[in-house]
Amino acid sequence: MTDHDRAFLVRLFEAAVKAADPALALAGHLPQRPKGRTLVIGAGKGAAQLARAFETAWTAAGNGPLEGMVITRYGYAEPCEMLEVVEAAHPVPDAAGEAATRRMLALLEGLTEDDLVVALITGGGSALLAAPPEGLSLEDEQALNTALLASGAPISAMNAIRKQVSAVKGGRLAAAAAPARVVSLIVSDVPGDDPAQVASGPTVPCGKGRAEALAALRSHDIRLPGRIRRFLDEAPEDAPNPSDPCFVRNEVHVIASAARSLEAAAALAEAEGVPAVILSDAMEGEAREVARVQAAMAREIRARNRPFPAPVLMLSGGETTVTLRGRGRGGRNTEFLLSLALAIEGCEDILALAADTDGIDGSEDNAGAFADGGTVAAMRAAGLDPAEALADNDAYTAFKAARAIFAPGPTGTNVNDFRAIWVK
After folding, report:
1. Which is the CATH superfamily of the domain at 22-256?
2. Mean pLDDT, to the nearest integer, of 283-306?
3. What's the predicted TM-score (pTM) here?
4. What φ, ψ does residue 42 adopt, rounded to 5°?
5. Does the pLDDT of residue 145 top 90, yes or no?
6. Pairing verdict, β 350-356 and 312-318
7. Superfamily for 3-14+259-423?
8. What residue ranges do the domains of the chain occupy?
9. Exposed e or buried b per residue across 205-219, where buried means at least 16 C-beta atoms within 10 angstroms of its C-beta
10. For residues 129 and 170, is the Cβ–Cβ distance under 8 A?
11. Which of 43, 98, 154, 402 measures 20 to 30 Å from 104, CA to CA?
12. CA distance 262 to 268
């Protein structure tokens, strides 16, 4: 892959991220100033940047003082003048996240009908909002997240379970703010952009209860520690229902999503003379299997000009999953790309970038990686067997050896996976 080709793929990624920029996303979504207090809460990997953008827009509109706090991942903080930004662990919660979440709940006490709560929610909030329900501990919530992350289950199934094992998820955070009005401004990182799924819906009730959580356990063969499973079986009540009167004045707005970001990348490609198609903004499934399907499409285009004529850029988003079988390093985007690289070996005119739009793929320091028909040969030349690396979930090590890591750093937003496959 030439430097020119790699730069083109990076520009596509940057266009997708820019389309989800908090300052742009907030335009037209500022709520009216209330008679009483304005309290801002929030959580997610893009929560600090969203808080800073909201604070700037609110002040520019002459809306008066703000108070409140948001929780973001370690290393993702941005300074705000009126709002507090707290860092905590992701993807497995820690004591800092639990302490911050308890403080957030305390801030919501004693509000009135004249007060406004603005909830800034982005992807990653499920881990950052750590508040185990009565009867369970932080260690239980950590064990739950670890089990879910290793299961390979889709995000909808994981969230169905998380919502029933929390003091804040599934609409409970908004219920705690009653009788104040809650306006949720959400940057979606979930397939389909259902706001009740982003960060497990702390301010957006979904009306589904323990039955859905138990069905998810059965469908995806998820094994939970005994204490958590007993809690699910015996919990006294489901998460709040949307029909509850405490939610009647609330508003929910999805202000940025994968769909808009992919459209921005496609527009840039077209402007640079590369025909583009968006396969889907809501792809789910095992990362390595989704990669094989898209690799087969790329090879079909290359050989027979179908289902799209070459040259063409195929874009997709959503949230794939990884079932942990090995002990290696890497997230779902690098795993996707390693599987793709193996499937396009020798096809030098197929190039690809897969990356997480928040800038971090899983728990490593990269957003993703680059690949083309020569990538697996480069890995072998560096002394690695790419097939063995895939079997061990060690895509990060393989791409680092091939000098194909993409590491732009935290982006300040999160609309999930970005995949670009260019058949030249």
Report:
1. Glycerate kinase, MOFRL-like N-terminal domain (3.40.50.10180)
2. 96
3. 0.85
4. 175, 165
5. yes
6. unpaired
7. MOFRL domain (3.40.1480.10)
8. 3-14+259-423, 22-256
9. bbebbbebbbebbee
10. no
11. 154
12. 10
